[in-house]
Write a structure and sequence with these properties.
Length: 600
C-alpha cells in the first residue's frame, strides 16, 4: 500500500502507487486533470505526492514515447502555417508542464538527436533553460555557469537605445548611446526580443595583449582615435520637476523670479538664466548652484498674529537649483498640470558623456573592465594589414574566468566582419567553432585568430602572435562623471557635527579603522591627527565629579551642575561624538566619570 499526499497533507492510501501515478499522468495528458497539477511516485519511500498549490515553477517539455518525440514534422508544418496553436499541443498531449518535484522522475534529453529509449521528455529548445538576458549571451555553452549569469546581469546595466520616443519622455536618470549597432554575433534571443530595434552596444576590434601593464586587473586600454570617431559616446538625461503647491489659508507657491526681500534670496548671478516666468530657457549651459526654476513659498510657520496680517510676512525662497557636482544643458522645458490641477514645470537636462578614464565597459560574457588609459591612435599597436584595435583586453582575464565564449565571439565577429554576414551564436545551437576557423582560413587569415602585430611607438614586430577579432562591447551606466567625489571643508550634521554623508550633500569620504591601518603601515601615522578631528570640540569638565560642566556666556564663567561654582573646571579636547555618547550614558542612568590627568 502506498501513502498519498496532496500538497504535503496525508489523504489516504492506494494499492499500487506507481500504477496510480501513471494513470493520473495519462488523465492529465488527455485533459481530464488540469495541466498545472504535478504527480510524483517516490519508490524508496513508497509514497505518492500530488502538488497543485500556486507559486510553483512549471516548465513545458515535449513528451517522449519509446525513444521518439511526440512533436512530429506534421505538427511543425501546421505550426508554421498557423493551423495549430500552443494550447492545441498541450491539449493533444504533445507537450506537458513539469515542476521541480516531478522532474525527479523524468529523464530529459537536450536534443532530438540524443534521444534514447529511457528518455521520458525532451526540451523544446536547449535555449529554454535560460532567462531573457542569458539567452542573448553568444556561445554560452562554452562558458562557466557563473559567468553566464554575470554576463546577463551586466547587460541590464548597458547604455543603449531604450525607447524610440525618448524625446517625448521625462524619465529619471536615463542614458542613451549615440552610435548603437546590431551585434555581428547574435543569438535567437536577439531575434525574439527584437533587440535590433533597441540595441545596447557597439562592434569593436579587440586585441588580447598587455599594454605597458596599464590593463592589468581587468582594466582596458582604449584607442583615442576610436573615441574621436564616436566609440562609447552617450547622453545622460535627468529631469528637474517642481509644482506650485497650495497650502491651508489660501496660500500657495509661486513660480517666478524671487524678489530681493524674499527670505533666503540667493544672488543675482544664480538667477541669470531665468526668463520672465521664472523658468529657464532651452539650451542654456548650467553648472552647480544655477537656478533652473525660480520659486517662492509662503513662510513655514505662521504665528497667531501673522495669520490675519499676511501682507507683512516675507515669503521664503524654494527654487530648484543644480546640486553639488552637477552640470549640463537644458534640453527640454514642459509646463503642464498635476493631478490636483496645480501648475507643474518639468525641465530635462542633457549632458554629453565621452568615454574617460574610469568609465566601465563590458563584453556579454561578464568580462567587465574599467578604462585605465586612453592611448593616442599613433601609439596603438597595429596588425600587418594595418588594423588598429579599438580596445586592448588583458589576457589574464581568460584562464581563471574560463570564458572561452569570449574568445569564440572574437573569432566569430572576425569571420562575420570579413565575410559581411551575421553569425549565429545561439547557445547549444549556434555555428560550430571548427566551421568558423575553416572560413577564416579560406579568407587568408590564421585559423586560430592570431595575427602578427607591431609596436605602435617603436614599429618593432611583437615576438608573440596576438589574438585579434571583432566583438560586441557595452558601455555600462557606471560612469566616473556620476561618481567622482571629493571635499575639503563643507556642511556638517547637526547631531554629531561630523561631515554629511553622500555625494549630493557635498559629503566627506569616511576614513574608518581599516583605512587608518593603511596609513600606519605606510608610515604616515601623523596624518591621522588631521584625519580624525572632523568633529573636534572643547568641552568643560569638572575635576571633582568628572561630569561635563556648563559654560555661562553672560557671566563668562563655568559651573558644574552637580558640584556648583567653587570647583576646578578645565577645557578638554575631545570628539563631539564622544561627548554625545557620554550624554547617551547619562540618559541610561550610567555615570560616565572622566578622570583627568595632567599632560605634563
Amino acid at each position: 500500500m502506498s501513502e498519498v499526499f496532496l500538497n504535503s497533507k496525508y489523504i489516504g492510501k492506494v494499492i499500487n502507487g506507481k500504477e496510480f501515478v501513471t494513470q493520473l499522468i495519462g488523465l492529465r495528458r488527455s485533459n481530464k486533470v488540469p495541466f498545472s497539477v504535478s504527480f510524483y511516485y517516490d519508490e524508496g519511500r513508497d509514497q505518492v505526492y500530488i502538488e497543485s498549490c500556486s507559486g510553483r515553477c512549471i516548465r513545458p517539455l515535449v513528451i517522449v514515447k519509446n525513444g521518439k518525440s511526440s512533436l512530429t514534422d506534421a505538427h511543425i508544418e501546421k505550426l508554421e502555417k498557423n493551423e495549430l496553436k500552443w494550447s492545441d499541443l498541450v491539449q493533444q498531449g504533445v507537450i506537458e508542464y513539469l515542476d521541480s518535484m516531478e522532474e525527479e522522475s523524468a529523464i530529459i534529453s537536450l536534443k532530438e538527436a540524443n534521444l534514447s529509449p529511457e528518455d521520458t521528455h525532451m526540451d523544446i529548445s536547449p535555449v529554454d533553460i535560460f532567462g531573457v538576458t542569458a539567452s542573448v549571451v553568444p556561445f554560452g555553452n562554452y562558458n562557466q555557469g557563473v559567468r553566464l549569469t554575470q554576463g546577463s546581469k551586466n547587460q541590464k546595466q548597458g547604455v543603449g537605445f531604450y525607447a524610440a520616443n525618448f524625446f517625448a519622455r521625462m524619465d529619471m536618470d536615463v542614458n542613451l548611446l549615440h552610435y548603437i549597432q546590431k551585434p555581428i554575433v547574435s543569438t535567437i534571443g536577439n531575434d525574439i526580443l527584437e533587440q535590433d530595434k533597441h540595441p545596447c552596444g557597439q562592434n569593436v576590434v579587440v586585441a588580447i595583449m598587455s599594454y605597458k601593464g596599464y590593463n592589468m586587473e581587468d582594466a582596458i586600454v582604449v584607442n583615442q582615435g576610436s573615441i574621436d570617431r564616436g566609440f562609447g559616446r552617450s547622453s545622460y538625461y535627468r529631469p528637474v520637476v517642481t509644482e506650485e503647491l497650495r497650502y491651508s489659508g489660501g496660500l500657495s507657491d509661486e513660480i517666478s523670479i524671487p524678489d530681493k526681500d524674499v527670505k533666503g534670496y540667493r544672488t543675482e548671478h544664480d538667477y541669470r538664466f531665468l526668463e520672465g516666468d521664472g523658468i529657464i530657457y532651452p539650451e542654456a549651459v548650467v553648472e552647480e548652484g544655477d537656478v533652473i526654476i525660480g520659486k517662492t513659498s509662503p513662510p513655514r510657520f505662521l504665528s497667531s498674529l501673522e495669520e490675519y496680517n499676511l501682507a507683512t510676512t516675507s515669503r521664503r525662497e524654494s527654487s530648484n537649483a543644480l546640486k553639488h557636482g552637477e552640470k549640463g544643458l537644458v534640453d527640454f522645458v514642459m509646463i503642464t498640470e498635476s493631478e490636483e490641477g496645480n501648475k507643474l514645470v518639468e525641465v530635462r537636462l542633457r549632458d554629453q558623456r565621452i568615454p574617460e578614464i574610469g568609465d566601465k565597459f563590458t563584453s556579454r560574457h561578464g568580462q567587465k573592465g574599467v578604462v585605465s588609459l586612453i592611448v593616442p591612435e599613433a601609439d596603438i599597436p597595429f596588425t600587418a594589414s594595418g588594423i588598429k584595435p579599438d580596445l586592448i583586453f588583458s589576457p589574464h582575464g581568460i584562464p581563471s574566468r574560463m570564458t572561452v565564449s569570449h574568445l569564440i565571439e572574437l573569432l566569430g565577429g572576425k569571420v562575420g566582419a570579413l565575410s559581411g554576414r551575421y553569425i549565429d551564436g545561439t547557445t547549444f545551437e549556434g555555428e560550430k567553432e571548427q566551421d568558423l576557423r575553416m572560413e577564416l582560413l579560406k579568407m587568408g587569415f590564421r585559423e586560430n585568430g592570431t595575427e602578427t602585430m607591431y609596436n605602435g611607438i617603436t614599429g618593432e614586430q611583437y615576438k608573440a602572435k596576438i589574438f585579434v577579432g571583432n566583438m560586441y562591447y557595452l558601455k555600462l551606466k557606471h560612469m566616473v562623471a556620476n561618481k567622482i567625489h571629493s571635499r575639503a571643508r563643507g556642511p556638517i550634521q547637526l547631531l554629531t557635527r561630523q561631515p554629511t554623508e553622500g555625494r549630493a550633500k557635498e559629503g566627506g569620504l569616511r576614513l574608518g579603522e581599516m583605512e587608518k591601518d593603511t596609513f600606519v603601515a605606510h608610515g604616515a601615522s601623523l596624518l591621522l591627527k588631521e584625519r580624525f578631528d572632523s568633529d573636534r570640540t572643547e568641552v568643560p569638565v569638572c575635576e571633582s565629579c568628572g561630569l561635563i560642566a556648563v559654560y555661562d556666556a553672560r557671566k563668562n564663567s563655568h559651573f558644574c551642575p552637580v558640584c556648583g561654582e567653587n570647583v576646578e573646571i578645565n577645557n578638554i579636547e575631545m570628539s563631539y561624538a564622544f561627548k554625545l555618547i557620554l550624554d547617551e550614558f547619562k540618559s541610561l542612568t550610567i555615570y560616565p566619570k572622566l578622570r583627568l590627568k595632567s599632560k605634563y
